[in-house]
Amino acid sequence: MSNLSAILNDIDTHRERYLEELKELLRFPSVSTAPEHKADVRRCAEWLRHHMNSIGLPTQLYETEGHPILVGERRDAPGKPTVLFYGHYDVQPPEPLERWTSPPFEATVRDGKLYARGAADDKGQVFTHLKAWEAVLRHDGALPLNLKWLIEGEEEISSVHLPDFIAQRREALAADYVVISDSGQLAPGLPAITYGLRGIATFEVRVQVAKRDLHSGSFGGAIANPIVVLSKVIARLHDEQGRVTVPGFYDDVLPLQAWERKQFAALPLDEEELRDTLGVPQLYGEAGYTTLERVWARPTLELNGIVGGYGGEGFKTVLPSWALAKISCRLVPNQDPSRIGALVSDYLKQLCPPTATLEVRYLGGGKPVVVNTESPAVQAAKRAIETGFGTPCVFIREGGSIPVVAMFKDLLGVDSLLLGWAQRDCNAHAPDEWIGLDDLHNGIRTAAALLYEMAELGKEEGM
Amino acid sequence: MSNLSAILNDIDTHRERYLEELKELLRFPSVSTAPEHKADVRRCAEWLRHHMNSIGLPTQLYETEGHPILVGERRDAPGKPTVLFYGHYDVQPPEPLERWTSPPFEATVRDGKLYARGAADDKGQVFTHLKAWEAVLRHDGALPLNLKWLIEGEEEISSVHLPDFIAQRREALAADYVVISDSGQLAPGLPAITYGLRGIATFEVRVQVAKRDLHSGSFGGAIANPIVVLSKVIARLHDEQGRVTVPGFYDDVLPLQAWERKQFAALPLDEEELRDTLGVPQLYGEAGYTTLERVWARPTLELNGIVGGYGGEGFKTVLPSWALAKISCRLVPNQDPSRIGALVSDYLKQLCPPTATLEVRYLGGGKPVVVNTESPAVQAAKRAIETGFGTPCVFIREGGSIPVVAMFKDLLGVDSLLLGWAQRDCNAHAPDEWIGLDDLHNGIRTAAALLYEMAELGKEEGM
Fold first, then answer.
1. Helices (H) and strands (E) in chain A — how many of each?
2. Residues 336-355, chain A: which have Cβ within 8 Å of B?
3. In A, which residues are within 8 Å of B219 by CB distance?
4. Checking CA distances to B370, which of A205, A385, B156, B312 falls within 20 to 30 Å?
5. Which CATH code for domain A2-197+369-455?
6. E-only strand ranges, B210-349
7. What is this structure's pTM?
8. Tens digits of residue pLDDT in B15-67
């Protein structure tokens, strides 16, 4: 790997230029959810296409009914594996603007951090890979493996047009591995590979009593109150130990392995600090599990929303006719979203008293993911991180879902390698989003090393 | 009462003209809560002033910071009692418009009913009194007692400026009795005097966990969920018998008298029909009491609103930082709103687990009211109804509060006589509001008879 050493040197040399270029990319308010930013999203895609073409990454812009998708490939290494890189150039809305220390679309460096909307999620991380490939191409004129890239503009609005796009281009997008950098490190100095994601099943439950809202004076006390009914239903979904009471809920849960519990326990999580960061009176969850186990490897049932009657300023003496809650279950291997959907629906209906009616709508779900940390691909990524960051990486899980991971598995049959450089407190989706300058730089170095490590992998090996 | 017979004949003769005039009054969209209807509210007040002046009721329009108040008087009978009539010319918003069979501000007769916003609440009922007074003045040139009137434009927005207005005009508004027609009959053919009103105490309770909303994937399962916490609190506010569990809640409740339970039981309430009208699977309330007892004479604790997280279309995987509920207690003699306020607040705080914080805001209340049905004033009203409707009246209570009743008691020291002509299913506050044409007509007759009956009462006798 003599090539790699020279390339890493090159990356070190161009550090400042890369940062200035990233600042340019970050100035586009590519807010995918906001109609008034539709043109900005396109300008951002156009800038990226132009930039990528100029550094040897032939890229096309595909139209969707929403925002365009950037796609391209280099088939430089016949016989070598093909890697599909996925990222997104759209960002979350920056509001509330008044809580930003510097303007969200004027990337600003303070104390070794780059502040801007998209710095961490995901423009900054995408850019580390582009710059790595640029450096490799400058030195070698070719990549050591076959590379495809797909950079979408709708990740923050649930990738609405992506499944169709992929399904229609299965052959063009076919790959042996997917690489995604849209996740984070465990802590400063602890770069990580995310080897597990929780799945999800989502529901809307609606309790109806009367056919219309009534005056609480005239009818209060004579019929059931839908908010009370719904509250009593919700109150019975967890027992005193914080366990979900839905019958059969834990049946398919793969118990945590002894090595995982041991490894989780060894990871530095300061619970006191987490409590302060979140501003909660105390941490709380299922009895018998640590905080990391609870968010990474145990299923949950959460209430994501509730609404009924009048919730605005002041008071209205309405006896509401209905109340509604949004519920989601985070799932772990081997729970199946559809089966959990049925179990939760049945149980909710059982809990409804005869004084009201209760309807459940299953709003869809996604499967949990766990990859084998001993697989050659994960081990290759581990070595790349050690090269790039100069420090060993840790294996972590993530409590959330990354829907595209399931999408690539379902539509292309490919596992995803998840490695990212953001820190946990990077304010993705919040004001003052940031990414560390050293993390950016080490990310570029890692992305370069990753190409050489993955070039040695077998094809279609999976994880 | 030879005068009265002639006057009743006159009222019968002018029935059609009165209806057409009422239709004119009902065409003003005097929606007090809607800024865009501010001018319409004023136009309605101006129309009323002009109309009242033209029929011998000298009326002035007093400005408030909100909508104007109509005030006037006739001191025609020195030595006779003074009656203060209260009503309101503002109406509820008509929305949803698509559920009206005919436009809400084009009064339309169908099947013996007059449909329009305000037909029952309260323009139609106010108008019956004006027309009765007009008939008396046409015949006698003077009223048989001293009459004052106060017709406000902000009843549907909690009479925000009325208390100050009354407090500043205690002498000008001084009266021996207050008469209000903003209530209803028990059923068709059963005109009623409302002798009891429940009081109210209102609260907002807010549960906070984290200092900001979090991603439910990243943190779900590791901290308490505020919707779950709030639901568990709400779930504990009633026991399995539908009784309120707040310690001390029932301490001051005056038990229902034997005669009341007997009289309530004799009133025709078809529970099957009520269930169908409301569209509820079944009636439900505190064990050991009938439906009428529950809504008229037993205290309740109702949930009037709840909000937390995302309650719109689709789904958001937010782990909300807070959840909030609006609670009201309906009170009966001799419960005191402030004492109940303290008891409920204390209990809610007790129920909050250490994983969250809970704050309660007491949003104010009003005392319950019961008047003596044997008092001369109530008996006078009873005779007036028999004259006007040609049928005996019944004594009922009302589950709601009428805040002005407490206002007149507190500020002027006067009891209110509550008699009205609307039916229980009149759709006040809902689409297709209506009042019966016969009920309107008999209401005018009753209002005329009431003047003569009350002229014979003692002064400052109270009820």
1. 15, 18
2. 354-355
3. 278, 295, 399
4. B156
5. 3.40.630.10
6. 214-215, 300-309, 318-319, 322-331
7. 0.83
8. 999 999 999 999 999 999 899 999 999 999 999 999 999 999 999 999 999 99
